[in-house]
Amino acid sequence: MWITQQKDDWKMRYKIRAGVEATQSELKRAHGLGKLRVRRKPKVIFAVVCKVTACNIKRWAKALFTCLLVRRILDDHAPMSEPWASLVRLNNLKDLCGLET
């Protein structure tokens, strides 16, 4: 079993599964998907769609806030000097937010 788990194809499949399970957990924990208060299929589908939409809006808002925060930090530190350029994490955030280096 351990040998199988060290292969790249298994790791890729498990990475996808872990992401899906994290999303399912968030929906159940933060949005109450585990205890729906409606009955019948059309109402259940509507409730699930609303909860998934709320989860996606929260994620979008968080990403937007992060981009705006990064832009503000970079604007406060006017010219980018060499130490700023060497920060890999900050460069990745700049790429995510569509900023030029």
What does this structure look like?
The chain has 101 residues and is mainly alpha-helical. The protein has a domain at 37-101. Helix content is 77%, strand content 0%. The chain has helices spanning 2-5, 8-31, 41-76, 82-85, 88-97. It is flat, with a radius of gyration of 20 Å. The mean pLDDT is 80.
In terms of topology, how is this protein built?
Layout: H1 2-5, H2 8-31, H3 41-76, H4 82-85, H5 88-97
Helix pairs in contact: 3-5
What's this model, at a glance?
By secondary structure, this protein is mainly alpha-helical. The protein has five helices and no strands.
Count of helix runs: 5
Rg from Cα: 20 Å
Content-based structural category: mainly alpha
Helix content: over 70%
| Largest sheet properties | none
The poorly predicted ranges are none
- Overall geometry: flat
Q: Which percent range describes the beta-strand content?
A: under 5%
Mean pLDDT level: 80
Order of helices and strands: HHHHH
End-to-end Cα distance, whole Å, is: 45 Å
- The tally of strands reads 0
